[in-house]
From TrEMBL, chain A:
Protein's name according to its UniProt entry: tRNA threonylcarbamoyladenosine biosynthesis protein TsaE
Species the sequence originates in: Acididesulfobacillus acetoxydans
GO cellular component, one term: cytoplasm
One term of GO molecular function: ATP binding
Family: Belongs to the TsaE family.
UniProtKB/TrEMBL annotation, chain B:
Coiled coil: none
SUPFAM superfamilies reported for this sequence: Actin-like ATPase domain (SSF53067)
Subcellular location(s) of the protein: Cytoplasm
Protein name: tRNA N6-adenosine threonylcarbamoyltransferase
Organismal lineage: Bacteria, Bacillati, Bacillota, Clostridia, Eubacteriales
NCBIfam families documented for this protein: gcp_kae1, T6A_TsaD_YgjD
Protein's organism: Acididesulfobacillus acetoxydans
Cofactor: Fe(2+)
Entry keyword annotation includes Repeat: no
Residues annotated to bind Fe cation: H123, H127, D314
Length: 217, 346
């Protein structure tokens, strides 16, 4: 399955991440592909926000592997509590409601321009996973990634985001979400999200049904 | 074992500092907080130059190979025995887990065997403490601008071990942006010194790259857009068949990065009223940054402090320096000390 999204600014990119962050969970592997300046880190930052990480996601190019231990569970618990009490909901809605998404299905059939709002948060999502953000921009050989134990991170209780994953293509799990970003410089960025599993098809529907509301007009 | 008494033999108060968080295996013996008896760095930079970056597999393997040799050399150079040490200080994060583990496990083993206390040091704190090696009479409060390949932080220091992070990068670190631009311009690794070298022959006003200041009053940084602006300029020129001068690009980009670092630091001075600023981290070795900040702070009756270049990059002396002050505060680590790759500065 493939989905497409066009971003006209880093802010649009961040918002796609924000939406994704709300459906990602432990065990997921997300590959972010695109050149320097395409917006991989911007997307990861949005994902971090959507997940409710307490600290901002920054580029892991230098550190190669950045772990966000425990940041998520505490914050999400708090947020969910607040959401249940109805506090944050209005704020979250006002932020998202201005986002207009033109989502197309893989058949290329454009959906109506979506008016976005938060209708519900998935309350069943596990709170016990950590987020690991990797960046292999500087690696030149697959063995380098293998020796630092990259595959050890592909676990049920870890959500892995990978920038520049090409070098470790052979050890990537088949069940993953691939996000390819095309477009240089001032051009809009064309996002292609693809996943082979049926499970992701359902998740994508969750994403639209759960977070986006398609407006009647 | 009780660590209540300050252990000061005739040889003085000796701290062995060990650093393995990234690409250097380093150890140093520090006497009484300021006197460096030895300072050993097994620099892996020649290995990494081939790859244009720090390659972790190589890093952790090299740390293992060099660890014992580097520590023994530091001890021999200082002419002291392990039993003379007051404590062993080691970086336990942030950094690459494999690399950190070599240092932490090694330091624990030596400390346990020698019967001396262990001190865990935050790598970012250690960079700041490089300043105390050469400016022991620094008074609090002061500000620190920590700029390296992995970090860009503005920190308020109220006292030893008492920090408040006022601002940090929201995307790329300053050193990372310099590295990526250097690589794109074909200048090699590490990017900072290469950009500085190329910039010397260029015109800093040739390109007007954006200076990302974020929302008014914010002390956070953002270098990702500035990096993209250089890439855009290169792409646009390439499509038109124009060849842009590398020295001009390097000089203009360096100027943009320095401008942002300086403006944010001055804003922190303005907001806090604190006028003494410490520079730390690899990018602290940048001449333009040092000169500009020195001048600007002078005009505000403030002062800039920075370590000599060889103490700006990763080294054991800065770890020993931070360890010395933790020793005075009796802040020891348990034997269960572990590597914390994502350690924050709190």
């Amino acid at each position: 399955m493939e989905w497409h999204y066009t971003s006209y600014s880093p802010e649009d990119t961040r918002k796609l991440g924000l939406a994704l962050g709300r459906v990602l969970r432990g065990g997921d592997v997300v590959c972010l592909r695109g050149g320097l300046g395409a917006g991989k880190t911007a997307l990861a930052q949005g994902i971090g926000e959507g997940l409710g990480l307490e600290v901002p996601v920054t580029s892991p190019t230098f550190t190669l592997i950045q772990e966000y231990n425990d940041c998520i569970a505490e914050d999400r618990r708090k947020r969910n509590r607040r959401e249940n009490e109805g506090e944050d909901r209005i704020e979250a809605r006002s932020e998202l409601v201005q986002l207009k998404l033109n989502i197309e299905t893989s058949v290329g059939e454009p959906l109506p321009l979506a008016e976005v709002g938060v209708s519900r948060l998935d309350e069943d999502r596990s709170e016990n996973f950590k987020v690991v953000h990797m960046d292999f921009y500087r690696l030149t050989q697959p063995q380098e990634a293998e020796v630092i134990g990259v595959s050890d991170f592909f676990q049920e209780d870890i959500l892995v985001l990978i920038e520049w994953p090409d070098i470790i293509e052979d050890i990537l799990p088949a069940e993953r979400l691939d996000i390819r970003i095309e477009g240089d410089g001032e051009e809009p960025r064309r996002f292609t999200l693809s996943a082979d599993s049926e499970e992701w098809v359902g998740r994508w529907q969750d994403l639209r049904g759960g977070i986006y509301e398609v407006s009647g007009n | 074992m009780s660590y209540g008494e300050i252990k000061q033999s005739d040889a003085g108060l000796l701290i062995l500092g060990i650093e393995t968080s990234c690409d250097e295996t380093a150890a140093a013996v520090l006497k009484n907080g300021t006197e460096l008896l030895s300072h050993v760095i097994s620099s892996q930079i020649t290995t990494h130059q081939k790859y244009g970056g720090v390659v972790p597999e190589i890093a952790s393997r090299e740390h293992l190979l060099h660890f014992q040799q580097v520590v023994e050399k530091a001890m021999a150079g200082a002419k002291v025995d392990y039993g003379d040490l007051a404590a062993i200080a080691v970086t336990y994060g942030p950094g690459l887990v494999g690399s950190l583990l070599v240092g932490v496990a090694g330091a624990k083993a030596i400390a346990y065997a020698a019967g001396v206390p262990l001190i865990g040091v935050n790598h970012l704190e250690a960079h700041i403490y490089a300043n105390f090696l050469v400016h022991p009479h620094l008074v609090f409060p002061c500000l620190a601008l920590l700029v390296s390949g992995g970090h860009t932080h503005l920190i308020l220091l109220r006292g030893h071990g008492d920090y408040e992070v006022l601002g940090r990068t929201r995307d790329d670190a300053a050193g990372e942006a310099l590295d990526k631009v250097a690589r794109t311009l074909g200048l090699g690794y590490p990017g900072g010194p290469q950009v500085q070298k190329a910039a010397a022959a260029g015109n800093a006003a040739a390109f007007d790259f954006p200076r990302a200041m974020l929302e008014p009053g914010s002390l956070d940084f953002s270098f990702s857009g500035m990096k993209s602006a250089v890439l855009n300029a290169l792409n646009t020129a390439r499509m038109k068949g124009i060849n842009l001068g590398v020295p001009d690009l390097a000089a203009s980009f360096q100027q943009a990065v320095v401008d942002v670092l300086v403006r944010k630091t001055l804003l922190a001075v303005e907001q806090t009223g604190v006028t003494h600023v410490l520079l730390a981290g690899g990018v602290a070795a940048n001449d333009l940054l040092r000169k500009t900040l020195t001048q600007e702070l002078k005009e505000r009756e403030g002062r800039l402090f920075f370590p000599p270049p060889h103490l700006c990059t990763d080294n054991g002396a800065m770890v020993a320096s931070a360890g010395y002050h933790r020793y005075l505060a009796r802040d020891f680590a348990p034997w269960t000390l572990n590597a914390v790759p994502g350690l924050n500065l709190t």
